[in-house]
């Protein structure tokens, strides 16, 4: 394993050296590189973070470790670090009670730490007993209040009423009709299903907010979800649909959401007046069927008739834009894509002439030209948040994105840090021993799957990266969130959120365990790595939900799915922020959509 990483060793001592530290054994050296599985890593994560993070940030980090990192002994980890997680708890208790110079018993402080962790876990639909940690027994915490319901009601109704009245008076006629129809459905309880369709800029998000403010100002629960993390951050109290409704990643004709009757989440669904789902994936029928089965099952406990109604008789508002990107057909041809799109749309076979004012010309190197055009004065501004917030390069394909990002990363005048992943085949796989022989670790390291970080992740300080999973949407850590790296530790990375309502907040990211299935391989790959990817360039698909001031679209090939060009061009609000570079080998100044 080490010989795959250490270049040109001349002795065993060279092989056992990481940085300036020489380790006594090969196994310990592998662990220093992060190539082996060990619970000690989580101790190192919290040890490192203690020097940088507040107690509140450490508690959030602790919850991320519990949920995403397969911690072997959560009780031991908690007992080791509970005092560090409690630094602000004791201070706040003394301030609230107005008592000075008093020592609060350790057991009482520990119960408060457990209570704070339980609140954070509840937001993800989890609880302390899921990880063998005790629920605090003190009467302060032993009440049966549904924390998910409480969280959805923690809005100021007077403030929301003011916002609603300001917004409802500015709705156009179409918006007013939709608003009134949804209002009538909720008030009458007839459980209608709506789909709000409109292209970018028609005010769908504005309408959603108006409706949300209306019902929340009346004390009603509105469950607000979106299909992507970025889109969910644009809506008040938004969550991703998968995290809110526990939708399985791999769906079939019989899938249902992982929500049991009698749980806090099922009670929250019962109490909700309305569900709003932005950017609903209309191409994924199994997704809606799973939610439909789940809602019917949960709501039928209140009334048997609900079992026969769509979504159990709950008013559902779906929204989206059919002009945007449909699903990619893996390894598909143009003909494959046409077959899939024509199931929902009439044949569209149009060639779009791009006005010459938007075209960037170049001499020999298109990548250098596009980087120079978008990231002007990069050496003076590469670490500035506002400079990076407003610009990006967009490409149709991942392989080109990787190339451009590598070139830009080399321009950052900071020291490289390379983080290696721990890769394995899931232990639940059948014929595991045979798979381990056929697919050794060296082979697993070479795999690059969609949404997965690289095995050898090269990062630098002041580097722009994108988060690849929904770590904690409640604090802005969603799949697609752009971050600026501030600190590079051995086992934890500190970063600053770039955009959205949490812009400027500092967050801490550990390595997490990600699992993926690829039809090409007969196993489930598990990779422990920082869920990050360099993000000066992103795919057009990944840019959905992003709002920028300056974009450059690099077409090394024509765009290849319905709506890709539409999505790319709609990332900015005016044409002055748009330009395209079309590679000369395409022999055309046109783009196909």
3D structure, described in words:
37% of the residues lie in helices and 17% in strands. Helix 4 packs antiparallel against helix 5 and helix 9 (157-168) crosses helix 11 (204-217). A hairpin with a 3-residue loop joins strand 14 and strand 15 (492-497). With 593 residues, the protein is of the alpha/beta class. The protein has 23 helices and 23 strands. A 5-stranded parallel beta sheet has the order 3-7-6-4-5.
Secondary structural class:
alpha/beta
- Bulk shape: globular
**Low-confidence parts, pLDDT < 50 over ≥5 residues?**
138-144, 586-593
Beta percentage is 15-25%
Indicate the percent of residues in helices: 25-40%
Describe this protein with a few key phrases:
alpha/beta, 593 residues, five-stranded parallel sheet, single chain, five-stranded antiparallel sheet
């Amino acid at each position: 394993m080490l010989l795959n990483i250490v270049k040109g060793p001349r002795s065993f001592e060279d092989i056992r050296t990481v940085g300036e530290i020489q380790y006594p054994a090969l196994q310990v050296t592998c662990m220093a590189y992060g190539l082996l599985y060990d619970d000690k890593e989580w101790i190192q994560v919290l040890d490192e973070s203690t020097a940088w993070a507040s107690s509140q940030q450490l508690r959030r980090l602790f919850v991320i470790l519990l949920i995403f990192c397969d911690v072997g002994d959560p009780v031991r980890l908690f007992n080791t670090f509970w005092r560090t997680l409690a630094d602000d708890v004791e201070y706040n208790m003394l301030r609230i009670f107005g008592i000075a110079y008093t020592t609060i018993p350790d057991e009482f402080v520990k119960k408060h730490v457990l209570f704070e962790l339980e609140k954070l876990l509840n937001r993800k639909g989890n609880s302390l007993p899921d990880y063998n940690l005790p629920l605090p027994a003190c009467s302060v915490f032993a009440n049966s209040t549904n924390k998910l319901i409480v969280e959805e009601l923690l809005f100021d109704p007077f403030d929301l009423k003011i916002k609603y009245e300001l917004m409802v008076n500015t709705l156009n006629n179409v918006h007013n009709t939709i608003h009134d129809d949804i209002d009538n459905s909720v008030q009458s309880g007839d459980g209608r299903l709506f789909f709000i369709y409109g292209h970018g800029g028609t005010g769908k998000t504005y309408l959603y907010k108006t409706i949300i403010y209306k019902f929340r100002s009346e004390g009603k629960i509105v469950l607000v979800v979106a299909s992507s993390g970025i889109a969910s951050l644009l809506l008040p109290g938004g969550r991703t649909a998968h995290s809110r409704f526990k939708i399985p990643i791999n769906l079939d004709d019989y899938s249902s959401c992982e929500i049991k009757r009698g749980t806090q989440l099922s009670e929250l669904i019962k109490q909700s007046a309305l569900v709003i789902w932005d950017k609903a994936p209309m191409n994924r029928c199994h997704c809606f069927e799973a939610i439909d089965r789940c809602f019917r099952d949960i709501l039928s406990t209140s009334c048997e008739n609900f079992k026969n109604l769509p979504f159990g008789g709950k008013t559902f508002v779906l929204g989206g834009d059919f002009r945007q990107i449909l699903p990619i057909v893996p390894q598909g041809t143009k003909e494959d894509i046409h077959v899939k799109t024509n199931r929902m749309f009439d044949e569209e076979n149009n060639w779009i002439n791009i006005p010459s004012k938007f075209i960037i010309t170049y001499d020999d190197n298109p990548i250098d030209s596009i980087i120079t055009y978008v990231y002007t004065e990069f050496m003076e501004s590469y670490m500035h948040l506002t400079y990076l917030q407003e610009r990006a390069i967009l490409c149709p394909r991942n392989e080109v994105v990787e190339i451009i990002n590598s070139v830009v990363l080399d321009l950052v005048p900071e020291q490289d840090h390379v983080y290696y992943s721990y890769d394995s085949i899931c232990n639940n796989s059948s014929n595991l021993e045979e798979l381990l022989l056929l697919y050794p670790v060296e082979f697993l390291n070479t795999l690059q799957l969609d949404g997965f970080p690289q095995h050898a992740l090269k990062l630098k300080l002041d580097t722009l990266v994108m988060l690849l999973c929904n770590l904690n949407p409640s604090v802005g850590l969603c799949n697609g969130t752009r971050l600026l790296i501030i600190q590079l530790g051995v086992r934890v990375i500190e970063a600053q959120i770039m955009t959205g309502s949490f812009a400027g907040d500092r967050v801490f990211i550990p390595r997490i365990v990600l699992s993926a299935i690829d039809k090409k391989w007969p196993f489930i790959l598990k990779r422990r790595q920082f869920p990050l990817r360099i993000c000066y360039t992103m795919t057009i698909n990944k840019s959905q939900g992003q709002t920028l001031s300056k974009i450059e679209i690099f077409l090394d090939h024509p765009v290849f799915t319905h709506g890709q060009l539409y999505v790319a061009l709609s990332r900015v609000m005016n044409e002055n922020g748009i330009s395209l570079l079309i590679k000369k080998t395409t022999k055309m100044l046109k783009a196909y959509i």
